[in-house]
Predict the 3D structure of the following.
Amino acid sequence: MDFSVWLAFFAASWAISLSPGAGAVAAMSAGLNHGFARGYFMTFGLVLGILTQVVVVGLGLGALIATSSIAFAIVKWLGVAYLVYLGIKQWRAPAQPMVADDTEGAPQLVSRRALVLRGWIVNALNPKGTVFLLAVVPQFLDLSAPLAAQYATIGATLAFTDLVVMAGYTVLAARVLRLLRSPSQMKLLNRTFGGLFVAAGALLATFKRAA
């Protein structure tokens, strides 16, 4: 991939990462509930989900998902169900302010491995991401050059921008959380993020396969 082409894709990848979506909601929710140090593990999962999408598109399976109504529907509704599940879980979360991991009486925290898995599911089971990559990535590929190296460059670029952007979302939520102490404030935040997850699921449910 020529440097000028990569530079154009690098700019596009920032727009992709900054655009609000299920990934941003997941990152902020993790910061809200677990603070930055632990919550950032959600971002590792989100990045693994993006890399999974790049591999799927690179292997040609993305085209199958985009063109097969059955495959598309299965992936889409699994993604919708998971986002709604996360929304309900967040909505019903205890109205407790965040405390340090080693503080006595702290609420039980989700393991780092579980956060990574949650992030991976959010991005991997998102056919919008597959269709988007199928529409955007070919514009930056040189079909006369080896594709594997180009897909690796694209995956690394998307991973880098997402690591930076989601760090911002996570730390923003974690810092805001430190200012909140009352159960009513925490309840409002939990329900706000729960509603955002459900809204992201509803938007995904309306997404249709291209004809």
User: Anything to note?
Assistant: The chain has one domain: 22-98+110-206.
